[in-house]
Amino acid sequence: MSIKVLLIEDERNLADMIAFFLEEEGYKTKRAHDAREALQAFPDFKPDIVVTDLMLPETDGNQLVQSLRQHSSIPVIMISASTMLNDRLRALQNGADDFLCKPFSLKELDVRIRALLRRSSISHLSEKPIVPEEAAAVSGHVSVNDYRRTLFVEECEIEVTHIEFEIMKEFHRSPGKVFTRNELMDRIKGTERAYLDRTIDVHISSLRKKIEPDPKNPRYIKTVWGTGYKYVL
After folding, report:
1. DSSP letters of 18-60?
2. Which of 130, 171, 179, 191 has the fewest CB atoms within 10 Å, counting from its CB?
């Protein structure tokens, strides 16, 4: 079955070029000119991944991702002509999983899509099947369900991005272990690491807001100054 990509890009020529390349690589693509078209197409198309430009007419890519995150944890790649660190950090804070600066290699886009999908719920080709009843791992007041790729805080399901889920999964596997930023990036991104280590801080900050009773004084995700982070039960 073809992987379905929802592509949101208002530059027609660039959208045509990306869509043509992806379809040649075996993907099924659906193009949208703006956020409104994307949100209308999303329910029927049921994409496996979203690739969206940051600068869109009327509603920008960050607002689009925020709207998607209200009901979906689908992997999202943001593309933009901006090379500003603040723009990349803002996109990640708003729920994007990856950020690719224009101009970029179409082959690199393909590699990044596949890297995200390898770690998402739609790709289990190389994994041992998980029995749903045995999928939940519980540590403290947070439980991780790898089968559904969801987090629960005190039995309440919370929405997280793909990367936030992967970070929490690593913490659950090794409570008390101190992870450097490099270790977390390597485990999440593999050889496709593309960001400065500080972008991990953005994801950690977002996770704390979702699982900590008091994010400013975290009880569970602790900072180990000069090293990285650890998860405390």
Report:
1. HHHHHHHTT-EEEEESSHHHHHHHHHHH--SEEEEESS-SSS-
2. 191
